[in-house]
């Protein structure tokens, strides 16, 4: 088939049913929930409805937290390396079912096959990492100022982790949180995006199998399909020790203060408005490849998607010409087709937001150099296929400073490096960033304290596609949380500082005498 041919909703439903069954999900009736209630599973490939699934009631959600809390009391005393055995089994099952899961990701999120498989690989990478971590939950031993005393810290399981995930990484972000939470001793209650319930059912079934295979408590994982009310319930429930939430800044603004009000812990991974600075010494061919993957890949629907290009004025015309040429080669269409590089947007809302942003950019004096137009509307009127857009902007106006979750790349120019950095940091979000340069001074300055203000700062690669080994997250409106690798595990545990006196005396710290 060619990208112009699309599977039908019925074919996609059959495919999803088969993959779900293989992952151990019981048969789902097409209308498991009456119309107007529950969760509607759609496929962005056609815009058609796959299933109507029942949503969890607030009573069910409450019961899930109660069960998870009971599991916590058991799990927290299981030695961490044995907790790792569960995650090891999960990783094996995810690998065994990688093609099934990738198909479900493509059906439900619209990702091209290679990216869908990459997302599944991100899950298994995460399991590998967490298994190693299960033997490395290190605390420090500090030099104690008192004789005959020992000062050290111990890391303990925290409690039940609530995990809210977004449609665009329906399974990887769950795995970032769940693999780490489980080795840290925390059960997980997961509310996936309403737009991606099927991949969630598959992951839940595979984890349930890993739990059964390793004899772990069944309630270590609870899946709650539902809308905003479920997220609010988790935000307000004091038994949810950590709420890890990925999504929009708007969502974070609602969830963050509610968790803070009960002194709960929050890990926020919100919007990005990621930029790349391109300096005159950059290797332009490599730069173009890096830019196109980051800006047009995943149809512009990653939180790490490249949205702003800050180019030196001397090379701006040459670079934008090359980018426009590369964009002209991008095949938009059926994400199952190996020749396709850009699949559908998640839905009509994303399309409306894109159109609105392009109108605003034009009103601000911007010129659309390429893209922005709809494709395949005749074949699939309820789906949204668009050509990724490149827009030259005269200035960093309000629309450029906002995150639009669609494939729009704004191009801005600069004269001095300081000007480039000021434009770069002149947005409310602070997730990912990169610089393309062969000048070491520029590269190091970009990575320095007065350089990029983002949680991720790269040199000569784009803003998206991070490995799991590093900590993932960002500053400012991105929310400050860090997930996946490095020492992000610390958010999932509580630290106890221990002072042990093994002497016969009782010296007080700071030289205090008392009596
Ligand atoms: C996201 O878009 O929410 O760095 C996560 C990346 C991926 C993760 C993106 N590894 O692009």
Automatic annotation (TrEMBL):
This protein's name: aldehyde dehydrogenase (NAD(+))
Residues covered by the Aldehyde dehydrogenase domain: 39-495
GO molecular function terms attached to this record: succinate-semialdehyde dehydrogenase (NADP+) activity
The keyword NAD belongs to this UniProt entry's keyword annotation: yes
Organism encoding this protein: Streptomyces rimosus subsp. rimosus
Gene3D superfamilies, per the entry: Aldehyde Dehydrogenase, Chain A, domain 1, Aldehyde Dehydrogenase, Chain A, domain 2
Pfam families per UniProt: Aldedh (PF00171)
Catalytic site: 269
Enzyme Commission number: 1.2.1.3
Domain of life: Bacteria
PANTHER family the UniProt entry points to: ALPHA-AMINOADIPIC SEMIALDEHYDE DEHYDROGENASE
Sorted UniProt keywords: NAD, Oxidoreductase
Family under the similarity heading: Belongs to the aldehyde dehydrogenase family.
Enzyme class: oxidoreductase
């Amino acid at each position: 088939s060619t990208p112009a041919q699309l599977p039908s909703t019925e074919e996609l439903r059959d495919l999803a049913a088969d993959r779900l069954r293989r992952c151990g999900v019981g048969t789902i009736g097409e209308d498991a929930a009456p119309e107007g209630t529950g969760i509607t599973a759609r496929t962005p490939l056609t815009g058609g409805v796959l299933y109507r699934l029942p949503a969890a009631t607030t009573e069910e959600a409450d019961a899930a937290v109660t069960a998870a809390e009971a599991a916590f009391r058991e799990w927290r005393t299981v030695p961490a390396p044995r907790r790792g055995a569960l995650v090891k089994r999960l990783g094996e099952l995810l690998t065994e079912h990688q093609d099934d899961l990738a198909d479900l990701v493509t059906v439900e999120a619209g990702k091209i096959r290679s990216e869908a498989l990459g997302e599944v690989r991100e899950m298994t990478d995460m399991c590998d990492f967490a298994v190693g971590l299960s033997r490395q939950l290190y605390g420090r031993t500090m030099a104690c100022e008192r004789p005959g005393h020992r000062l050290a810290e111990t890391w303990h399981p925290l409690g039940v982790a609530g995990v809210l995930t977004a449609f665009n990484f329906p399974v990887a972000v769950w795995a970032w949180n769940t693999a780490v939470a489980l080795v840290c001793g925390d059960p997980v209650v997961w509310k996936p995006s309403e737009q991606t319930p099927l991949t969630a059912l598959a992951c839940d079934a595979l984890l349930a199998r890993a739990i059964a295979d390793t004899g772990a408590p069944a309630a270590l994982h609870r899946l709650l399909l539902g809308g905003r009310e479920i997220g609010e319930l988790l935000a307000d429930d004091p038994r949810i020790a950590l709420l890890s939430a990925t999504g929009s800044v708007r969502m974070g603004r609602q969830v963050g203060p509610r968790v803070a009000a009960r002194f709960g812990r929050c890990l926020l991974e919100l919007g990005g408005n990621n930029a790349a600075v391109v300096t005159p010494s950059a290797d332009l061919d490599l730069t173009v490849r890096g830019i196109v993957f980051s800006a047009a890949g995943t149809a512009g629907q990653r939180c790490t998607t490249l949205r702003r290009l800050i180019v030196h004025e001397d090379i701006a015309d040459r670079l934008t010409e090359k980018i426009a040429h590369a964009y002209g080669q991008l095949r938009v269409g059926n994400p199952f087709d190996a020749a396709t590089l850009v699949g559908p947007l998640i839905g009509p809302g994303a399309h409306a937001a894109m159109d609105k942003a392009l109108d605003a950019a034009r009103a601000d004096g911007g010129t659309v150099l390429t893209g922005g137009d709809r494709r395949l509307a005749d074949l699939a009127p309820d789906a949204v296929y668009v050509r990724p857009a490149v827009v030259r902007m005269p200035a960093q106006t309000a629309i450029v400073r906002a995150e639009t979750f669609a494939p729009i790349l704004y191009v801005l120019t600069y004269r001095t490096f300081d000007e480039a950095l000021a434009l770069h940091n002149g947005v409310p979000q602070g997730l990912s960033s990169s610089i393309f340069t062969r000048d070491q001074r520029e590269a190091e300055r970009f990575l320095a304290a007065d350089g990029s203000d983002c949680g991720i700062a790269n040199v000569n690669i784009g803003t998206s596609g991070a490995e799991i080994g590093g900590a993932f997250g960002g500053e400012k409106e991105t929310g400050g949380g860090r997930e996946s690798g490095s020492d992000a595990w610390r958010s999932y545990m509580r630290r106890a500082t221990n002072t042990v006196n093994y002497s016969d005396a009782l010296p007080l710290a700071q030289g205090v005498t008392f009596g």
